[in-house]
Write the structure tokens for this entry.
Amino acid sequence: MRKNKKINLYISLILLGIGLNSCVQDLDIQPIDPSTVQTFNEPQVFAKVYAAWALTGQQGAAGNNDIDIDDEGRFSLYRTLWVTQELPTDEAICAWGDIEVVTLNRSSFTSTNPALKGLYARLYFVVTIANHYLMQTDGSSDADLIKKRAEVRYLRALAYYYLMDIFGNVPFTTEVSSTAPPQINRSNLFAWIETELKEMEPDMYDPKTAPYYRLDKAAVWLLLSRMYLNAEVYTGTARWNDAAAYAKRVIDSEYTLASKYKYLFMADNAGSIDGSSVNDAPNEIIYPIAADGIKTKNWGSTIFLIDATRTDGMPTWGTTGGWGGNRARASLVKKFFPDGNVPESTDLTVEANDDRALLFSAGRTLQISDVTKFKEGISVQKFWNIRADGGTTNDIEFPDTDIPFMRAAEAYLTYAESVVRGASPISGYSALQAINKLRERAGANQLTTVDKDVILDEWSREFYFEGRRRTDLIRYGYFTGNNYNWDWKGGVANGTSLPSYLNLMPLPADDLNANSNLTQNPGY
Amino acid sequence: MVLKFKKSMKTVLLSMIGLLMAVSAIAQTGQTNVKGTVRDVNGEPIIGATILLQGTTVGTATDMNGNFTLQAPGNGVLEVSYIGYKSEIVPIENRTNIQIVLHEDTEVLEEVVVIGYGTVRKNDATGSVIAIKPDQMNKGLTVNAQDMITGKIAGVVVTPNGGAPGDGATIRIRGGSSLNASNDPLIVVDGLAIDNNGIQGVSNFLSTINPNDIESFTVLKDASATAIYGSRASNGVILIQTKKGLVGMKPKLSYNGNFNVSTPRNYIDVMNGDQYREYANLLYAGDTEILSKLGEENTDWQKQIYRTAIGTDHNLNISGGYKNIPYRASIGYTGQQGIIKTSKLDRLTGSLNLNPSLLDDDLKINFNVKGMYIKNRFADTGAVGNAVRFDPTHPVKSDDEPFVSQTEGYFEWATYNDDGTFKSLNSDAPRNPVALLDKRNDRSKAWDLMGNIDIDYKMPFLRDLRAHLTLGTDISHGKQTTWISPTSSTNFIGGGYDGYTIQDKWNRQLSTYLQYTKNFNNQNFDIMGGYEWQRFHREGSYYGESITKPDYIYQSDVINWATHNQLVSFFGRANYSIMDKYMFTATVRSDGSSRFSPENRWSVFPSFAFAWRMKNEVFLADNNLISDMKLRLGYGKTGQQDIGSDFPYLPVYTINRDGAYYPFGDEYYPTSRPDAYNPNLKWEETTTYNAGFDISILNNRFSASLDYYYRETNDLINVTPIPAGTNFRNKVLQNIGSLNNKGVELMLNGRLIDNKDLSWDLNYNLTTNRNEITKLTTGDQQGYYVPTGGIFQGSVQAHAVGFPANSFYVYQQVYNSEGKPIEGLYVDRNGDHKINEEDKYFFHKSSPDYIMGLSSKLIYKKIDFGISARANIGNYVYNAVAAERMNVGPNGVWSPLGFFENKVMSAFDTNFTGGSGITFMSDYYVQNASFLRIDNITVGYSFDKIGFISGGRISATVQNPFVFTKYKGLDPEVFSGIDGNIYPKPVMTVLGLTLNF
């Protein structure tokens, strides 16, 4: 038994020993995943501030969404911006049954509209990442970093610009903290953006000296001119002279118009960067949002612009998808055919005598009686995944076509409109000259007179389906009210009057519930 | 720690081996072969009675006929015992054939149940603990462990996930206490807590456990029982014990097997080819272009994808005692086809259990190892929805172009160029369901090894002190390979797909405790204190590429991921009872988790329980009718940290993957995204109050148990919106909100007939559970809700204060005078003349109000007959299949995207055309899915000795034969409440055989 006793003791001691080994410090383990890091990488976060406009997450085309929303690509920044700015207007109408499409088509805006929720979340994602970048790189005197910080400030200001234009009175913050931001009113936000842009403008690259895809001073001037053009809407005080001044700076800069209108919307619209010696769109595009069939893909970028407007039977457009959704309302087509006589054609640029009439009418009707039938209504073929130089694109499903998000042509129209509305011409350059420069590029006849409404039509002819129409209609007072009732306005076939509170979108319900500092816009 | 751990473990193992080797064989002097039979007072043989040679560790057990054989000296003494009977001391007195009669113990049963970290006499249990031993006669009936408790225990709801072979189930105990965190109970097998998160390529995390190896299931329901498991126990705990061998028992071999045939139960009613052609001609009269796209066949697509499936199951186990080491070893094989063509499963399991008792029973060692190897082929369940949707006028295969050259003959919808040449397959169209199954080869191979050693040691210097140590580990590896043909409609553009996903897991657990027991006067007292350390490690990788198009990049490089988490706990328990009448239990547990920041890491979970054994009171002690009566009261707190994210409190950056680079100039750059994080995240806590009453009468022939419980969860962890601009995402994991569950559980057991030849056992259980969310956001916003229950467009469920979680949130349909719904016309509930989001309302929920289970077993001589049934009452299901296919208008037949799609016949009940954009959000589609399901009907015949077979049983069973319900979809039992593309559960006929050698 003695042997047993010794063994017993041995065992008791072992068990006790094991028991007393307290490994509480093992709770301090750190992440071990190779795809996450815990340190700030300046160039990579900088790239992300740009990427947030072009992509929906850290996985192309989808799979690692930046925001929490169902259907990553359907609620990308660009696509939600586009549907908000185009579907409730006289330019576009969509045949699908998606809830955001159906309600935006007829200007029925609610605080639970998923496209508005997505747009809001994406824009604040940009704001927060930008705030983070600026906090982390604060106090640096590196010349390169100063330029980058200016560009990040620009992108943040651009995000706030859209928030101001679409939602008006929004939460405002320039730092990342857990305190719920206070609500800023629209004119104060305008003032902040204006000051911000003017403050960092000297730090930006000179026009056309930045690496392609990065922003320069011309982007600042163009945004300022756009803000001043709409200042009466944003602040109540018109700023036509300032709009004209900044627009003129862009017109006089190194940026010019692309030699052909269509080049702006083709797969090699990055010109030499895309290996093209034919496409000179980079001369005009001030802010290209990148897309590439292999390296920069998302379901809500140019693939949406291309595929949503196509269906079988239209001229080869360069991608495999044809979703048959967005097409032109009759009012848009009448900008090119004022008498409403639209011939059947596979390419209406010929019949319209205007390179900008990239429309398809074979087997289509001008008027739409059933919104859900894509072939009722003229099809739009503005965007292509076809190269101007005839080469092959990188992919057959995802396009290489960049989004020409901001281009010099805008400056010409801004200038013309400001002058017509009372700004003093600069250096004798007239509104008519500016308009005719665009028409000359488009191979259209020169105009002899120009007035406010002609300019509104010209905005449409130049910029239809590029995501800006709502802003223009509001500025003219046509978006709501009774002055201009385009087809299917308000969900009625011949259009109907709309109440003026609809000029501002409702703040999304999620944020109203989460942030007690916010009050909803009037009327909602 | 790891280094020390390994070293200590080595020392323990060495000493163990040393001990085993040091133990010598029992001296065999003057041994004779002693035989005998053990019977009860009625002359019936007692199976499994223990015969022990007094003063030694030599023993055996009686067989199916009550017989035993033992090597013993003629002057030895036998101790004969069996649960429920008084033990007998029988001197051998040189006899070689001894007949022994055991008398029933009218004293209360000494039945022992397993509780957390130990065992307790059933009657001393103060918490809500239900133990069931799987019926010996139902062996071989079940393919998966969870089938054994389906419908048997009040408060435990087991909902099968689907009908695919090997599909697991969702187990809920007393409703779900979380919204976002896991609602799964903690499952502990032989003392080792297993990881609910599963293995890649294995649908059921309980697959490793062969149902034939299970000795008992113990379910701990209330907090006073579960609090001892602290952080993982908010949703209840299931303790599974596997079978063990007996000391000195001669090796006993037994075989269990079955052969089964499964058939689909029902199909969705859709149009056939002729009906469809007629309808299309009606809608598109005169449009020859569209009508020319119709075919001439009458293809029943649903019948094309289902088949009669066969399966088989074989298990062999041997148990006995080799010298001093009782052992049990088993191997099992299951081969099962699924009713959807191409799906099948092959599974091999093995287990070994050794539980030697050394040093005069002072050192008890329990060694378990279980292994599993499984091979699966998964069918593309998209075939189910496509079979309903696909045009019945076209054939499965065609001799025409472009099918012969492009899709290996399978008919698919294609797109064409302006010149009429083939362009591509239409990626918006429904897909040929047979092609989906044939062209996808989705296989998995996985293995899992679980092992643990339990060492229980009674201190020699203090006999009342006991030390226990458990070391356990669980290692698994799963690889799933997916191959999709380049001619398939799903991956036509991509040139097919060839990819894999690998997942490896390694979990380790160490727990140790000391327990001190003291009995004096009329009081029993024991106190226990311990420590537990658990580390979970998961990693994996995945990759996929095109088969024919090297330029089509699904993924440019292999993606690797890895993560881990750690739990450390200290726990203690004290039990005190007086006069066997009043029992008190108190437990406390302190848990730390690596998932929270150091400030929020630890939390304390206490519990208290009291039980009053009313039977032992003077007024009941002599009562012959009532054999036991007990009142139980309990209170406890448990925690939850299974939130799906391992480091939600740490700021980290995610680097981009393929297709998400951004260019500057002509170069592409990677991007880095700061991820949303919440440094204040902490434990979710659930507080439970439980009151229970147990009674049994007529010598435990009838028993009943009634429990009332109230569970409140606070600091609910949920992904909720945060103010824009404050974090890197619009929603983040936060502790927001609270919810509660309350309900009543009733269990009735009875032996209605108890004769020599005929017996009839009946078990009935009833559960009610009411779940309500009481807080959901930081503010007190009226009308705030969180949408959940996503479907093809939007969502139809929501969480809101004052309603059960995941209630349906839809529009109120308006009907015409004939009772037909008017499309898109809903009640304007707020009277503002607009129909929008504000007119939605909460309409029912997916969880049932009442759940009942009934099982009956009738035994007449050698024949047994059993039925098990279950009913859910008050559960609703959103019929997404009907909602998605409701458009009977022209563009619901010929889609503007270029294809025909079939209609379900139920769409003609409503004649909707989908134009309103919100037609599918109607409460019309939220349908009552209350059901009564007969789970199985079994007939069996037990037989005696045949040749060298000592006994056995043959049986025939039909599983899932009947479902009575008003629900119009395929199956009313849908856990999430959204009936979309489910793999339907088959009707299975099983022939089983049990042989004992």
In short: The mean pLDDT of chain A is 93. Residues 480 and 500 of chain A are 5 Å apart (CA to CA).
